[in-house]
Input
Amino acid sequence: MNQLTEQEPALVVEAPSPSDWQSGELLDFLELQRGVDLPVQDRRGGSVPIFGSNGLLGFHDVSVSEGPGVITGRSGTIGKVFYSQGEYWPLNTSLYVKDFKGNLPKFIYYMLGAIGLERFSTGTGVPTLNRNVAHKEKVAFPPLDEQKKIAAILTAVDDKLDVIARQIEATQTLKQGLMQTLFSRGVGTQDADGCWVPHAEFKDSELGEIPAAWTVRTLGSVTEEVRERNSGKLDDALLCGVLKDQGLVPMRERVKGATTERCRVVSPGAFAYNPMRINIGSIARNLRDHSVMVSPDYVVFATRPGELLPGFLDHFRRSDEWQRFVGRSGDGGVRIRIYYDDLAQLRLKVPPLAEQMKVVEVLDCLTTKLNQLVVKRDEIQTLKRGLMQKLLTGEWRVNVDPSATGT
Output
């Protein structure tokens, strides 16, 4: 089963369709039908996938359609398109292609994903896809043999994206597992040859068993709050904002009511965060080789040299221990506020500096691999969007192999 979960942009047609393509309304090439309700208590498991507006929602033992099938959201989430190779059950929050009218299902899957079905939503509350309006959309379809070739090309790109997605998931799982081990048992000690040997001695602590050479410290004892404000030495261009897991990035507009003289200074390696958003992980480290400025409302703190490496804390803040602490800290009712004094109470297991450095090296390696995979995925997604624009409008034609088979 293959599914398109990214909303593709609507096709931009700047030239007439090829003369051998058929033009008409969408209803001339396919018919959309509302799905069938199936309450959760009536779903009996099995091998038949159940599709809703957001995609796969479970399994049942009876199907509505034998497949292959193309499904899209009808109510709630509009614009996503899903493909089922075999039989399936489309819920009433979805629409499915009841009649392909002789066209290739996989080609229709890509075409519907590209024409921007969200444009046909109605309603001011919950968006609803009006299939009657969608049916009137002007489209052009190539001959069946060309549909097969185009679908085969785009399927090959999707297969590559699927491989990368699995690699990203596997690397993330590996990193998460390693973090749990490294922040509790470390990497060990170095022998006379400089090789790392697992810890052999452990001791009890308030945070459980830890290697004998480790200590338990409060975050406040290994970091310090930085209250420095801009004195005019930094340029306006260095004014930054904090985005989740993206480091410190330039702001598009200066913070309302703030002047650069009041902004806080974040030195290289230091951390900054919005105390109103720390509960969802919005914290960043300055990875630049120069200081930057952030809003005066932000909290800025740095690790103490010789006590804690910035990279170690940067990885630790993504650990389960950090998230559990942040989740139960702070005040402010519905919108949690966590200031430095709150964070300073966090107790963490601290290895010697040499071992911290090795932990950072291991996790940095996996982070680099993840970043490379994400860049590769984004490049292929950009390629796919370009191919869809060219192939599905007929701007680029494909050589049809008489022996081509369906997809």
Observations:
- The longest helix spans residues 144-182.
